[in-house]
Amino acid sequence: AQRVTQPEKLLSVFKGAPVELKCNYSYSGSPELFWYVQYSRQRLQLLLRHISRESIKGFTADLNKGETSFHLKKPFAQEEDSAMYYCALRPLSGNKLVFGAGTILRVKS
Amino acid sequence: DAGVIQSPRHEVTEMGQEVTLRCKPISGHDYLFWYRQTMMRGLELLIYFNNNVPIDDSGMPEDRFSAKMPNASFSTLKIQPSEPRDSAVYFCASSFGGAGFEKLFFGSGTQLSVL
Questions:
Q1: What span, in angstroms and rounded, lies between the C-alpha atoms of B100 and B45?
Q2: Using a CB-CB distance cutoff of 8 angstroms, which residues of chain A are in contact with residue B103?
Q3: Pairing of the two strands B10-13 and B110-114
Q4: Quick check: B29 and B95 in contact, CB under 8 A?
Q5: Does A8 touch chain B (CB under 8 A)?
């Protein structure tokens, strides 16, 4: 079975500090990994996906198959980064996404 | 396109009552998903459809929950009878799987409170 674990319910950092939102997964095959974000009063939306290997809003995430992790990182947090972040996995076969429990990021000024 | 449309935005009901949540996916999308969001468990997949056919309903909590998709532009999630532990935000999402999966488009959600 597929499983996504986000160990932190809440991560609080100061503006300008580095951010790392942790995500670990369990899946026997090669999954596709995503980060979704929900800003206050907005819809849940895609932030980035590992196959794109791109940086969005300064965030990056590298898939580490050895550690089965897909941590989301940003070198300098901004107040507008405050949101709920979900890590998600798509099995190689199928079109469903399995989400983690989510991490609330609070960036303090 | 207005995106995925869910109704109602908020629903307050009493224990034992029937609750029906509605969703209109983005036109042309062939996958529709129902998720439930709680603080404890995050986003749980309840059921998803492909071309109006239920593919995986293993996430549906129990027989009190049922979902239908009578056509490509409409789906319902019904809870009968409702219980306080069903209180959560229910999200509908859709996607197009034709050219390979890209991303989910989410609705605004329905905040359900069962008293």
A1: 20
A2: 34, 46, 49
A3: parallel
A4: yes
A5: no
CB A34 within 8 A of CB A42: no
Stretch B70-76: mean pLDDT, rounded? 96
**pLDDT per residue as tens digits for the range B5-28:** 999 999 999 999 999 999 999 999
Decide if A52 touches B, using CB distance below 8 A. no
Rounded Cα–Cα distance for residues B98 and B115 (Å): 42
| CB nearest to A44's CB, from B40, B101, B106 | B106
pLDDT in tens, A86-107: 999 998 777 788 999 999 999 9
Backbone region of residue A102 per phi and psi (left: phi > 0; alpha: psi in -120 to 50; beta: other values): left
Which residues in A lie closer than 8 A to residue B104 (C-beta atoms)?
36, 46, 97
CB–CB of A32 and B107 under 8 A?
A: no
Residue of B nearest to A84 (CA): B42
Measured in degrees and rounded to the nearest 5, phi and psi for residue A61 equal -150, 130
